[in-house]
Amino acid sequence: MxxxxxxxxxxxxxxIASRVRGIQGKKRVGRKVGFTNRAIxxxxxxxxxxxxxxxxxxxxxTDQPVNLxxxxxxxxxxxxxxxxxxxxxxxxxxxxxxxxxxxVAPGFEIVQSIYPGWKFSVEDSIVAQGLHGCxxxxxxxAATHDVLTGLAEVPLALFKGAEAIESGKGENALGGPIEVxxxxxxxxxxxxxxxxxxxxxxxxxxxxxxxxxxxxxxxxFGGVMDTELSVRFT
Length: 234
Prior knowledge:
alpha+beta, Fumarylacetoacetate hydrolase, domain 2, four-stranded antiparallel sheet, globular
């Protein structure tokens, strides 16, 4: 690992990640916030959320199969995604932050680990671009007041084929997606601030589950979202 014996601080890890992104030169379409589900912190040996970037080349619709060959030890995470109309700032309260959101959508983030067996530190995960692989984005839902205030109560059921895998709820991610947005805004430096038009995927509502070619996964999002999402892996 990169940070054994405390060799890296959080600031250093984010600095390395930023330098790597600069070399790659990819088109950013948004951010991912990871480890927002505190229930899984002990599983991965972490103790706080992290963030990374989402790129246009890694954004998929539900009718596009995802080729897993490009990812290392891939896993699937069902998430609620926010689409921003306006740029949020740190001085905003949660109601003002919610006012920056134009749409919400179901999402599957495919995460990956370059560290064998998913063994890493928080700093390692930051250096590895927040463990982000790609994002499968479902149908967008207008961010009305009722939708935004009901996101924390959204129930979720995750399936592999016809097999029920796990259930979750919007509040599993730091209390709700708007709370995740607030936390992300507090984490970002002046040079990394969110912009209108970006999306934010707010973290898994279940554990992250290993996926393999040939599988089809789906999730049902209830409550104010009332929608489904599916993805096929090749």
